Amino acid sequence: MATEQARIRVARPRHRPDVLNIIGVLFLIAIALWLIKNFIEAPADFYNLFLIGLTNGCVYGLVAIGYSLVYGILELINFAHGDVFMLGGMLVATMTTSWALTNKSGIVLWLFILLMLLIAMAFCATINTTIEIVAYRRLRNAPRLAPLITAIGMSFILQNIGLVWKGARPTSVPDILPHGTVFTIGGVPYTWNRLIVVLFTIPVLLALMWLVQRTRHGKAMRATAQDRDAAAMMGISVNRTISFTFFIAGSLAGAAALLYALYITNIRYTEGFRVGLIAFTAAVLGGIGNLPGAVLGGLVIGFVESFNNGLGWHAPGSDWTQSIIFAILILILVFRPEGLLGERTPEGV
Fold first, then answer.
1. Structure confidence at residue 18 (pLDDT)
2. At what angle do helices 145-166 and 81-98 cross, to 10 degrees?
3. CA quadruple 67, 70, 73, 75: dihedral positive or negative?
4. Segment 332-345, tens digit of pLDDT
5. pLDDT in tens, 122-170
């Protein structure tokens, strides 16, 4: 009996800590120590960079939600999404200049901003839905490479439209958002033009989660994402549901375009490619298909970008920012492809 128990004990697998997990934990500890050291060296700079990263991360999160929505229902990476965002920013620049909003203030200014928001959302939603109908719909049953190449092609088409529309130089957007101080952290003011971005992102995320989880359209989206054929047999219009998803994703791109253009105060025809890739990285980091994960990933990327660009003690510097962001993307795809908040699902046989 004792011999048998000994054999059982020997047969049990020993759960040893994975070397890669240990390296990952040590890497996170090193980053934490680096941030603490920078905080001690220059707390005011640290607070300022934190607030900048928070604001930029919210913009990236809004764009990343669009990627997650489309991927969640079609398993398609819509590379044209970032360029839809870019065209929305150019429309905002045109409206801001044409309507001479620098001469307006108070409630009148906010009414014009609200009007621009609705127009930009409708404009980008229309473009995104048209792309789905014209370019993607006929390729749903094609090999996955075909819609991926089509998405890249649509991205270049929209880039060239932006180039013809506004030219190669950055387009200046009048700075019309208020800059009054809302509160201070460590002596660093947080102004209204930054807070507006954060205040917009949180309600949008909550509204989208309610839409997906509680409404009839949301149930149709989830059913279509799980099994399109079964959803069609249950009476769900698959084409309408997918077009509705692209419409919502385009609306988010338009909203992000307004916030980005008014906050950064310039837009360029290549901006959609740059911001789109960062937002895609954020979506993968948080768990593509997961809406809170997209915003979390955007915040993480925003903080990485801000701290790397601005911290003075042993920071790689702004020349390395893009490399660091895409290195994060590669590491996530290799070691945790489901992302921070995503769930690992078994492959069907």
1. 65
2. 20
3. negative
4. 777 778 888 876 55
5. 999 999 999 999 999 988 888 888 988 999 999 999 999 999 999 989 9
